[in-house]
Amino acid sequence: MANKTEIIAEPGKQELFIKREFDAPRHLVFKAHVDPEIYVKWVGPREMKMTIEKWEPRDGGSYKFTHERDGHVYAFLGVYHELLAPERIIGTFEFDGLPERGHVILGTTKFEELPNGRCRLVHQSVFQSVEDRDGMMASGMERGVNDGYEKLDDLLAQSTSASA
Amino acid sequence: MAAAATDNLSRVFGALADPTRREILSRLARGEAGVQEIAKPFRMTLPAISKHLKVLEKAKLIRRGKDKQWRPCALEAAPLKHASDWIGDYRQFWEESFERLDEYLKEIQEKTKGEKEHGK
Known about the structure:
The complex is a heterodimer of chains A (164) and B (120).
Chain A: E1 6-8, E2 15-22, H1 26-34, H2 36-42, E3 49-55, E4 62-69, E5 72-84, E6 88-95, E7 105-114, E8 118-126, H3 130-136, H4 152-163
Antiparallel strand pairs in A: 1-2, 2-8, 3-4, 4-5, 5-6, 6-7, 7-8
Chain B: H1 3-16, H2 19-28, H3 35-39, H4 46-58, E1 62-64, E2 73-75, H5 77-117
Antiparallel strand pairs in B: 1-2
Helix pairs in contact in B: 1-4
């Protein structure tokens, strides 16, 4: 059975969570986050070309990478606050394509050991404002929205009952 | 993404963040309605409801009739679709990334296992 990606964003909060399990021990999943040669292999959709411009995986080090799709280049940058192998990564993250700089996200990724050589990734992103977060994804609307337009009624009913 | 598009999205998300406004949209998904009718299920004054309608109108989530006396509100679905596409994109981004990571992890584990079995 495929592992499912869970995205949790409660209405009115400045944070969101991403949860995902992997059929691999946590040291491998941790390594896939800090080794640039492995990182470029998996972050982002296949049609995006990822280029690492700077990569200093140590406390206080910084990173910068770009994603390219259909001729558009999106740059992301940040600083590693703490790298604690194989348990957690704390750092900042900023999309360098907004009208103004300064909308920085504080990210914490934890790698939890599970039985049978598996692990669980729990990522928390803390934004500077609810608007910043909701600009990245809608609040309280994260479930059921993938199915799009046809299920608009369902979507509205769901978000209404979720807020009741 | 263009700045203007991002700005519009912020307005849509801002409008959707409020439960009363989501309920209003839910009502309008069943058909157009006037302010009085929209206000009925809420314990709110008409000006308060009008304020919510203005936010929805500004986010282009609803459109209102021109008639001064009777200005029915109707749902504008396009910005909602755009918003759900964008959220879908965010989820899709990670889902696709993690699937690629799964492939890599599988590959590297099989390789390690193979090396062990060959006594390396």
